[in-house]
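If your schedule permits, I should be very grateful for your opinion on a structural question. Thank you for your consideration; the sequence and its tokens are set out here:

===
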Amino acid sequence: MLSYEPDGTLAHRLDPRSKLAIQIGFAATALAHTGLRALAALSVVAAVVLLVARVSVLEALYAYRYALVFLTLAPLLAAVTFGSPWIDLEDGATSARASYRVLLILLVSAAYVRSTPVRASRAAIQRTIPGKPGQLLGIGVALVFRFLPVLQADLRTIRDAMAARLGDERSAVDRASTIGILGLSRAFDRADRLALAMQARCFAWNPTLPALSLSRLDYPAFAVAVVLALSAFL
């Protein structure tokens, strides 16, 4: 699971608001263009973003390995038809391009996660979206970033415990149902403990968040975000 790591890269020095703007602009143009030339250009942009954040492509792909399963299966399922000719290559190619666009968006988001602290993301959201909606969205993002790695660790613990008890010799359906039931039980238990911990620490809707300030590096980043967003309409 990708998480924030302190570093001195260019991506770490950018304000989270400029990085969010780049993500939005990249996602907009990636979803708007389906041609091979556009995908090749977007691939170069995604590679540059990963390089700036010092994130390995293999590490990012491994972090999204479960999503990759669905992105790989989608073109195969889209190509299958229930009659002659049974395999429609054009539908499969269209779905493959769509899956690749989603993969590029995920890779760009991996650079953001690696270079941005959770509290900085919450501060950027709450100061961009005013009032209770921004506070609620900021809290949701912060909880997801902190809670998801804990749930993944619980699932790994469950799988290791099953393997130690020869659970890997059971059928795939039996293993999946056991992991699913135990994983949900752990998730609800974690959620109850999280709610109790938040109450014990006098959870506040508007805590003191880190100060954010734009630097000279952020203005070119905003320019890149604008160019990416405008390219979606070309």
Residues 132-200 form one domain.
